[in-house]
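To make the argument concrete, we let one protein speak, a sequence paired with a row of structure tokens, as a model reads it:
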Amino acid sequence: MFVKNLSALLLSLLAIGCSANEAEIQKAIEAKLGVKVESVTKAGYFGLYEVYADGHIFYTDDKVSAMLIGGDMIRAQQAVNLIDLKNNRNITDERLRKLTAIKFSDLPLERAIKQVRGDGKRVLATFEDPNCGYCKRLAKDLAKLENVTVYTFLYPILSEDSLKKSRQIWCSADRLKAWNDWIIDGKTPGGRDNCDTTAITRNQEFGRKLNITGTPTIVFADGERVPGALPLNALEQKLNQQK
């Protein structure tokens, strides 16, 4: 749990009174929160510093005398958002997308189910649990895309049945057909589940390393990561931006 007792944490931080640079802020927060801070940068607003740690962004002042932490961060959600009202920009969201970006060339595509439509020039990857309802909704929209290559990483995180289905799909002679039969048409995968499924285990390890906590998670060619099922028009817009 990222923050066990927010009130106690804030009170303890008030004891730190000297001004600090980025390195000192990082050291102080790591000591108080017990997590690795990946970056500390000036937020550009109200003299605040942006702190990125454990997949979340929060804010503190140069004396580390107080912090802005969303209550919902306990449930792994980003609740505090810094908004630039003049330019109508969600600064926190923009920064979080940049900080959580995944270099597409780093994806182990050999462990994904590949499907190509048309010329396949537009590219995206997804992390999906076979029992995820939003994944089923996404699959129906992905099926409508043209000239695209989709890499689907089986990422069973919801239940033991998710793992069993993932293994059965991976062990199928035609993995793409087995995946689409289930995720789009609802045809339960059959057959064995005892082939070499280390790819699925490694996908789970890889996803945890990237702090992928929900499905579907979409990764576009530019590295942008989007949690959740985007509607068809949003998928088209994002893919067309990458031509």
Observations:
- The CA atoms of residues 145 and 236 lie 8 Å apart.
